[in-house]
Amino acid sequence: MSGTSSIGWRNCRARPPSDKADTSSATSGTTRCTLAAAHPRILALGGGAIGGALTSVALLRMSGVGSWLICLVALAFYSWGIVCGLFLLEARPGAERMNLHLWFAQVPMFASPLATNSLSSGFYAGALLQIDPFKLNVDARIGSTFRRNLLHDGTPFAIGINVAALTATCVSAFVSAASMT
Question: What is the pTM of this model?
């Protein structure tokens, strides 16, 4: 062993007590993670927890089977986010791949009178192009949101992309491919 062992993301390293190269470590033999390496865990865990809590509150206020089903789908998604974050934290095999699917599910956004879908867990930065009237909406926010509607008359047609989720998907795919080699 060369003094560093990979535990999930590349910037996290477990250092043995004899490694004196980094004096900023408070205790020897500990696992240190930079913010760049820790953010997928934080976003997956935190986004899933916040989204789950907010969806649970919304679920208590909902009436009607359709609204309950939409909230249950969102609650299942945020629960999956918590599981992905925990698996990344524990450095389980395949955790990067699970996280890739979590982020990929957040990439597309669309709206129409028939159905609407917009979902984010942890962080959102995206662009939404509304067709009629023609309008481009660019937005960024920290937190978890979901918007799903079925048969909602008056909703304008729009398509969009969550750029933050697309970036996280690409990074997750790169990390997942790198960890296989």
Answer: 0.69
